[in-house]
Design goal:
single chain; 1141 residues; alpha/beta; Chloramphenicol Acetyltransferase; Rossmann fold; GMP Synthetase, Chain A, domain 3; nine-stranded mixed β-sheet; 34 helices; 42 strands; disordered C terminus
Length: 1141
């Protein structure tokens, strides 16, 4: 990894330009910019004297070296990897003994090429080492295929090696003889001993010694050890103290890293990196640099901002922090430029959310440049330290895994390779790998042009994401060089220089090409009245109390509509509401039709609602009348001053030859349904006739609903599924079958009614269908069509349904009350594949469109989570008498002009255009810094033996600590699964941070009136049969370790199996804990042991000599079970010559 660092030539040029302007116009700018060099100036005021006598004594690691050392541990995410570079070069045939002798001389000259790190995290220079050997393999006579296979095998071995830092050498070279004239050099070096500048230095010296074996290089009077000790000594100076204050003051507001789409299944084993490269030819790179310099911008920061724009397009969070690699080889001694070592450090650059959407790219670069220089003044307090403090504060390991590395200050890498390593030839392959890094972006000058590498963890990201990002980045660089981006716009002045990839845009356009002619605009009830004249004697409605033909249904509805007119007169306008306060039954259906016939809109008022809720809805809706019966009518009369009409049979009602003249128009309101509102006051969703009719017509046509079908109407009138129950079958000559009073939650009664009335269509939330499947599995003639919507469909419900009812066709539908019942459908032909955690949301219905958009309403790329918006003919007019809320929820897209509905749900688009529904934002929680989808925990629990259902939640409220809890329903209440068994099962499928710390057994999952899971009614976790994870420490070592951890982290108690880094430990606190443990136990324990065995029990077993299967000794705790699945993946080591004690 390389640099924004020191002051590179382009930064110096910018400073000179700005200072010249300041000289002309005043001195304020000069004074403010002089501080840019402050970190290096204060430290280098006095040259450091070498400590030759203690040259081989242990010395501390730098912050970045410590991070590299610890990163090898599998304890950390994206660990089990060394910070390491691998490069291949092709060159003319080497004199191998001379080449080896040159390297031996350089190793003898440079201390850091003889360095090792001991188990306590101290570096030591070995005074002597065995001769460094360079194995050579002659492949010149091998067949080409065999030679390539052998070269691939060498690359595979060397490119991803994880050398033990305690074993010398940390540098490896091999030579492959390709022909009589050509050799290939394979070079692998651990970054803990040398950065890229240092390797250029080694190449230069090896080249000179190879050319002239008699050459004697000048001695070195300064060492990397001297440098590190000098830097550590500066931490008491005012500059360092000021830098520490600067960063600690900002730490609470520091943005997280970019939240990029990850693969659904994380790669197993150690991280492996793959490289993507691009080259901007010299003329284009020169044009980009000239444009940047003309604007007073540094090319490095232009490239950084281009990277940020690309990340922002694919990041779920628009505000994020990037980890910058700095080179700070401070001038502490005349020999500083001639010694090898790792002089890198890091700086965290917070690229906050764009609070000025119209701001141009140029302006954003300028703002970022200002931020960089302000942060750089305080760079002596490194990014590694900031992360340590942040982890300690949040009680969770925090990383910033998106890295930007600029080597533009190095000069032309191509020329440097020519000068410093002539014998190496040209590089033909390279890869770097770094622990806790997801993407390492590297830029450098090569042959006058710009070279770019992205080293990315293989398999970490969702399919196609990195390819699309890299292509977008390439396109942006090309546009910045030419001044012409997408659509002919100049990307420098474009506020959105990165757009959705064209291929993805084409898929979205196809997805939303839903225009369909479903017939002329009409009224929701018109087809029912027409059907009554066409097939008057066909049964329309079956109720346990009475069955109604179409003739009787229409006649009684028209008669009731006349009574409404008699009491109220003709409608005063198109938006009069009539409340329907009736229980489910035939009266409810007659009342709804009567209201629509009268030219008014119906407003459901569920009699089972609490009185206070009914009063609120009546007060908000201000209906002109209420339709009720019996005691409900009497109760309604006391709650409202408007007329209350009683709905009873009207045996004298006769059907007129023609339907009454329509009093409504397609764009008038058909119904207003009041749903829960975030303010505590219900909101009334206004749906017009044309919107609801569009959905009803589409579903009937899509699934072939006709006169032979019967729909079972279980849903409450207050739930918009009832709109289809009523108008779907009745508009095409079908039957509506209603349950008897008291049967709303009786699956055995449902089964009897389904069989008796030959019901063919089921339309409910998934939980009600699941009740039928579980409690009434024997149906002689199950429904041919099962429509499930309104909540998550449990994945295990699909195979169970298929087994019991193979002839039933399952369809998942989705949408919102604000978009006329449904907007999307997905036929569930089979259980979703392993890359799906839920049933696909599907594709839009006719004349409806769905968009997944970011905060600025720009489309999200494939796999990126965004807000789900609905557009098209199904949209509600808005919220009843609430223009402010309507405007907020129904925005007009600023670029397309399309009217949208903001659902409040999250979704993402798969590459084939299928939508994946992710639930509401509150279904995704953050615990210990990890974003967690509660549905994933529930799905894992539901797959466990003995579990019939589950609900997960995060307890506690930020900024306080949060913990995961789960409630389960046992498949067999007399023999519920053991909690420890559940934990073991979960540990096999979920990462440790997603494991519930508490699991509670409940009798049933509470459901709302509409059949959805009602989380508010879950019992308090303290009132249930629960079992928590914490285990009491046993024995001296466990007790001492647990107490030391609790004291350092400020916790009341620590369990024997609590993983240190999951409860807030950081590398800083581990060092303090280590000292306490050694003091209390009176014995030496390697510091590394606390990282490799990070729980009281695991450490005790290690200290007392116990060994489990896992190298980290975690076999007996939760974290261990997750890690143990990976096995012991340490690379086999060849015999070593030197080992650190």
């Amino acid at each position: 990894m390389t640099v924004i660092g020191g002051l590179t030539p382009d930064q110096q040029a910018l400073l000179s330009q700005l200072l010249a302007k300041a000289d002309a116009g005043g001195g304020d700018l000069k004074e403010s910019l002089q501080g840019v060099e402050e970190p290096s100036r204060q430290i280098s005021d006095a040259l450091v004297q070498p400590d030759v006598e203690n040259r081989h004594a242990p010395f501390p690691l730098t912050d970045i070296q410590m991070a590299y050392w610890l990163g090898r541990s599998r304890t950390f995410d994206l660990g089990s990897v060394a910070s390491h570079g691998y490069q291949e070069y092709e060159c003319p045939r080497l004199d191998l003994p001379r080449f080896e002798a040159a390297w031996q001389a350089v190793i003898a000259r440079h201390d850091m090429l003889r360095a090792v790190v001991d188990s306590n995290g101290q570096m030591r220079i070995l005074p002597e080492t065995p001769l460094f050997r360079i194995p050579a393999e002659d492949m010149s006579d091998s067949p080409p295929a065999l030679r390539e296979a052998r070269l691939d095998a060498i690359r595979e071995t060397m490119a991803h090696r994880v050398p033990s830092p305690g074993h010398w050498p940390l540098l490896e070279l091999r030579v492959s003889r390709l022909s009589a004239e050509r050799d290939r050099i394979h070079l692998s070096c651990d970054a803990i001993v040398a950065d890229v500048y240092s390797m250029f230095l080694a190449f230069d010296e090896v080249g000179r010694l190879y050319d002239d074996p008699t050459l004697s290089l000048d001695g070195l009077a300064f060492s990397f050890r001297d440098y590190v000790l000098a830097i550590k000594a500066q931490e008491s100076l005012p500059a360092f103290v000021a830098a520490e204050r600067y960063w600690l003051a900002r730490i609470d507001g520091l943005s997280p890293p970019p939240d990029l789409p990850l693969a659904l299944t994380a790669p197993s084993g150690p991280s492996r990196f793959v490289r993507r490269t691009l080259h901007l030819p010299a003329p284009r790179w020169l044009a980009l640099k000239r444009r940047a310099n003309a604007l007073g911008l540094t090319p490095s920061l232009v490239l950084l901002c281009a990277y940020a724009e690309t990340l922002r397009m694919w990041s779920r969070n628009p505000a994020f922090t990037i980890n910058l690699t700095l080179f700070n080889r401070l001038p502490l001694h005349p020999d500083i430029e001639r010694i090898m070592g790792d002089f890198t450090s890091t700086l965290l650059l917070d690229l906050g959310a764009d609070d000025a959407p119209a701001e141009s790219f140029e302006r954003r670069v300028r703002r970022t440049q200002d931020r960089f220089w302000a942060d750089y003044e305080h760079a002596s307090f490194t990014g590694v330290r900031v992360l340590q403090h942040l982890s300690q504060k949040r009680r969770a390991a925090v990383s910033m895994p998106i890295v930007f590395t600029s080597a533009l200050g190095v000069g032309d890498v191509g020329r440097k390779l020519d000068q410093a390593g002539r014998l190496l030839g040209r590089p033909t392959y390279g890869i770097t790998q770094t622990p806790q890094v997801q993407i390492d972006h590297q830029v450098f000058e090569l042959d006058g042009g710009l070279g770019v590498n992205w080293d990315v963890v293989e398999g970490l990201f969702a399919p196609g994401v990195i390819e699309a990002m890299f292509a977008a980045y390439r396109g942006l660089l090309e546009g910045l060089a030419s001044g012409e981006g997408e659509g002919g716009r100049d990307p420098w002045s474009d506020p959105r220089p990165v757009q959705l990839p064209m291929a993805q845009r084409a898929v979205r356009d196809t997805l939303n090409a839903t225009a369909a002619d479903l017939g002329p605009e009409g009224l929701l009830h018109a087809a029912v009245l027409a059907q009554a004249r066409t097939t008057p004697d066909r049964i329309a409605l079956i109720d346990p109390e009475r069955s109604l033909s179409y003739r009787t249904l229409a006649a009684e509805a028209e008669a009731l509509a006349g009574e409404l007119d008699a009491r109220l007169g003709p409608p005063a306008g198109s938006d009069e509401l009539v409340a329907v306060a009736l229980s489910k039954g035939w009266r409810q259906v007659v009342a709804v039709l009567a209201v629509l016939i009268s030219g008014r809109a119906y407003m459901p008022l569920d009699p089972d609602l609490p009185d206070a809720r009914q009063r609120t809805i009546l007060a908000e809706g201000q209906p002109v009348a209420v339709l009720a019966r019996g005691t409900l009518a009497a109760h309604a009369s006391t709650e409202t001053a408007c007329p209350v009409l009683v709905v009873e049979p009207r045996p004298g009602a006769a059907l007129a030859a023609h339907p009454p003249a329509p009093r409504s128009r397609p764009r008038d309101l058909a119904y207003v349904i009041f749903t829960s509102g975030s303010t505590g006051v219900p909101k009334g969703v206004m749906i017009e006739h044309r919107a609801a009719l569009n959905t009803v017509r589409d579903v009937n046509a899509r699934f072939g609903i006709g006169a032979e079908d019967g729909v079972f109407g279980l849903s409450s009138l207050s739930f918009d599924l009832s709109v289809y129950d009523l108008f779907g079958p009745l508009s095409c000559g079908g039957r509506l079958v209603l349950p008897a009073p008291g049967e709303a939650r009786d699956p055995e009664a449902w089964a009897a009614r389904l069989t008796r009335e030959a019901v063919t269509v089921w339309n409910t939330v998934p939980a009600l269908w699941q009740m039928l499947v579980e409690h009434a599995p024997r149906l002689p003639s199950p429904p041919r069509l099962v429509l499930l919507s309104g909540d998550w469909i449990p994945l295990d419900l699909i195979p169970r349904s298929r087994t019991l009812f193979p002839s039933s066709r399952l369809v998942s539908l989705g949408g919102a009350t604000e978009a006329a019942i449904w907007s999307v459908a997905h036929p569930v032909e089979e259980e979703p594949g392993p890359d799906w955690r839920s049933v696909p949301y599907g594709r839009p219905l006719a004349n409806q469109r769905l968009h997944v958009l970011g905060p600025d309403l720009s489309p999200r790329p494939d796999w990126v989570v965004g807000d789900l918006f609905i557009a098209g003919d199904g949209l509600a007019r808005g919220y009843w008498r609430d223009p402010v809320r309507t405007q907020a929820s129904f925005p007009v897209h600023p670029r397309s002009g399309e009217r949208l509905y903001r659902t409040g749900d999250l979704a993402r688009v798969r590459p084939d255009g299928t939508l994946e529904f992710l639930g509401r934002e509150d279904q995704q929680v953050k615990v210990a810094g990890h974003r967690i989808e509660l549905g994933e925990i529930e799905a894992a629990l539901n797959r466990c033996d003995g579990v019939a259902g589950s609900v997960a939640a995060a307890l506690g409220h930020p900024p306080g600590p949060r913990r995961l809890a789960a409630w389960i329903v046992a498949a067999d209440a007399s023999a519920p699964p053991a909690v420890e068994t559940l934990r073991r099962s979960l540990a096999d499928t979920l990462p440790a941070y997603m494991l519930p710390r508490t699991i509670a057994l409940i009798d049933a999952i509470p459901l709302s009136q509409n059949g959805k899971i009602d989380r508010a009614k879950l019992p308090d976790i303290r009132d249930t049969d629960t079992e928590t994870v914490r285990e009491v420490p046993e024995g001296e070592v466990e007790t001492v370790v647990a107490a030391a951890v609790a004291d350092e982290l400020g916790l009341t108690a620590v369990g024997a199996t609590d993983a240190f880094f999951e409860i807030g430990a950081t590398s800083l606190s581990i060092v303090a804990i280590h000292r306490v443990i050694e003091t209390k136990l009176g014995r030496k324990i390697p510091l590394l042991a606390l990282f490799e065995h990070p729980s009281a029990r695991a450490l005790a077993q290690h200290v007392e000599g116990a060994r489990g299967e896992s190298r980290l000794g975690l076999a007996d705790d939760r974290a261990a079970r997750r890690k143990a699945r990976l096995g012991d993946r340490r690379p086999s080591r060849r015999p070593t010559q030197e080992t650190a004690s």
